[in-house]
Design goal:
The complex is a heterodimer.
Chain A lengths: L7 H10 L6 H15 L2 H15 L4 H19 L3 H4 L15 H7 L2 H12 L12 H14 L29 E2 L3 E2 L2 H9 L1 H4 L12 H13 L3
Antiparallel strand pairs in A: 1-2
Helix pairs in contact in A: 1-2, 2-3, 2-6, 3-4, 8-11, 9-11
Chain B lengths: L20 H30 L2 H7 L2 H27 L12 E8 L2 E7 L5 E6 L1 E5 L4 E7 L4 E4 L6 E4 L5 E5 L5 E6 L12 E7 L1 H11 L8 H8 L29 E2 L4 E2 L2 H14 L13 H12 L3
Parallel strand pairs in B: 1-5, 4-10
Antiparallel strand pairs in B: 1-2, 2-3, 5-8, 6-7, 9-10, 11-12
Helix pairs in contact in B: 5-7, 6-7
Chain lengths: ~230, ~300
């Protein structure tokens, strides 16, 4: 299971950590940490998410799902809106589980590994992804109001309507799964918001006309809802 | 409350046609004139409380009462009456030339029937909750009500006119620029009165002709959504021309997919809001006459919604 390159930053971090190319999870974890430190996290963007997803868990469904998301994102890029893709993504929840093989690899990772330790040691609570920038969150809330998401969802800060067809979205940033099926990460959430049936076949939530940027902004807003 | 695409509440001091401009002028004059009179009264009050004995004596004198208490109001109010009547005389629907576009609008709890008419007043087309007009053409509205008193008000295009059961009131409106103009029921009519919105879409004349032509053919949509629509009771209240659905209790849905709003001017119209409205309109507009459709499965719901949004 050889990892495809995930961009210059990702490769660099893999090298820093001294992990083999095959140890994708550890490499990516370090990559995210390294990029967060260098303030370049946004450059990783959704492509990493897609690539990571294909390796994640290894189950057939996950692979299919990853491909769906990846192909979606390729379409976006082909349409020329790719430049926005990474705009609001600051971090993703892909730190390896305790005891996972990847974790041991990080310990071998020397400097970068110890930086990661410092990062995580600050807060023993579960690591939450950092918030997207405030402007994106504000735009996302405005877009959700404008598009009438409240017709089905009760959403904090949107007084009317408060639909009861779909799940209420309070504290969505703490929700583990999207629609009970997909990991709640930002690029995937953005795809789901714009075209739910494409990633959750059988979903009642229809594809809704909006720009990729609006979808990402709404995802950023939803993930910012933590209480 | 969120805007349904065009701004809510409607702008009231931003006239966009000859039938709303005099109203706005009058409103500003009343506001500024009223403020000036208030300042005079406050000055007199100040003088009465804190002024010198001489000033107090003058203020209470017979002359002041004749001037401030009688002559001043008589002159101001008479002048205002004459000026106001002259200013707004052009709004009167008695000055109909026969060149106007004619539309009958019937207020219902809590939405609007829109019946387009030809020059002789014969009905040509039915729609709901949305009025399309041509820029620069006066529109003569015949306003009626089916149940209780409503009031038709699109502030940027004209005055406000009550819709009274058993009567036909007439109102002229006109838009000078293409655009979407928001309206609102302005007479409390029960439950979701505040959610009884309306929009006017003004087109350039050529666009209006195109829009009109696109309205005349009946719907050609089909598929599982239509079967569900017919078998689940929707057709008992809603008409879709070209299908067996011919209910009259609710809005005509022949072109619902092309409407700018859902739920009478309150929600943007997209597949998401359409789905939410069908599934549970009561959560969105409590008390309205459309029941929540909880019996649909998710896929059925989407099929009906997918079908309706294709009705352009």
């Amino acid at each position: 299971m050889l990892a495809p390159p995930v961009g210059i930053i990702g490769e660099l971090a893999v090298k820093i950590a001294g992990v083999e190319a095959g140890e994708a999870r550890a490499g990516l974890a370090v990559a995210f940490a390294a990029e967060t430190m260098t303030g370049e996290a946004s450059r990783l963007g959704a492509r990493v998410a897609a690539a990571e997803r294909q390796r994640f868990a290894g189950g057939a469904k996950a692979v299919v799902m990853g491909r769906r998301v990846a192909s979606h994102q390729r379409e976006e890029e082909e349409k020329g809106s790719g430049a926005h893709l990474a705009g609001t993504i600051v971090g993703v929840r892909w730190f390896p589980k305790r005891g996972a093989r990847g974790c041991r690899m990080i310990w071998k990772g020397g400097f970068a590994g110890s930086m990661l330790l410092m990062l995580t040691a600050c807060d023993p609570a579960p690591i939450e992804p950092p918030l997207a920038d405030a402007a994106a969150i504000a735009r996302g809330k405005a877009a959700a109001a404008r598009l009438g998401c409240g017709a089905c969802h009760d959403m904090p800060g949107i007084d009317w309507p408060k639909g009861q067809v779909g799940p209420p979205l309070a504290a969505f940033g703490k929700r583990g799964l999207i629609a009970g099926q997909l990991p709640n990460d930002l690029p995937l959430l953005a795809v789901f918001i714009r075209d739910a049936p494409a990633v959750v076949p059988g979903s009642t939530m229809p594809a809704i006309p909006m720009t990729a940027r609006e979808a990402r902004d709404i995802a950023a807003w939803l993930q910012s809802l933590r209480d | 409350m969120t805007s349904a695409g065009s701004g809510w509440p409607p702008a009231v001091f931003d006239p966009a046609g000859p039938y709303s401009e005099p109203v706005t002028t009058l409103a500003w004059a009343l506001l500024l004139g009223g403020t000036a009179v208030l300042l005079v009264v406050l000055a007199a009050l100040w003088a009465a409380l804190f002024g010198s004995a001489k000033l107090k004596a003058r203020l209470g004198g017979e002359r002041a009462i004749w001037i401030l208490g009688f002559a001043f109001p008589a002159v101001v109010l008479t002048g205002l009456l004459v000026w106001g009547l002259m200013l707004t005389s052009s709004l009167s629907a008695t000055r109909v030339t026969g060149q106007e576009m004619r539309v009958k609008i019937i207020g219902e709890m809590w939405w609007w029937r829109v019946h387009y008419q030809d020059a002789e007043g014969r009905e040509t087309l039915r729609d709901a909750n949305e009025l399309h007009i041509s820029v620069g053409t006066p529109v003569l509205l015949e306003l009626e009500a089916a149940d209780v008193i409503h009031s038709f008000w699109v502030p940027r295009l004209g005055g406000k006119m009550d819709m009274i059961p058993g009567r036909t009131n007439r109102l002229l409106i006109q838009a000078d620029k293409p655009g979407i103009y928001k309206g609102q029921c302005a007479e409390y009519c029960g439950g979701p009165h505040a959610l009884m919105g309306f929009i006017v879409v003004a087109h350039a004349p050529a666009d209006f002709a195109r829009w009109r032509a696109s309205r005349l053919p009946a719907s050609e949509g089909e598929g599982p959504g239509l079967s569900l629509f017919l078998s689940s009771g929707c057709a008992a209240c809603h008409t879709i021309r070209g299908t067996p659905a011919n209910g009259l209790a609710g809005p005509d849905l022949t072109h619902v997919g092309s409407r700018h709003t859902l739920g009478a001017g309150i929600l943007p119209n997209n597949p998401g809001t359409m789905t939410g409205w069908i599934a549970d309109a009561q959560a969105i507009k409590p008390g309205n006459r459309m029941p929540a459709y909880h019996q649909f499965t998710g896929e059925e719901l989407r099929a009906v919604s997918d079908y309706l949004v294709t009705l352009k």
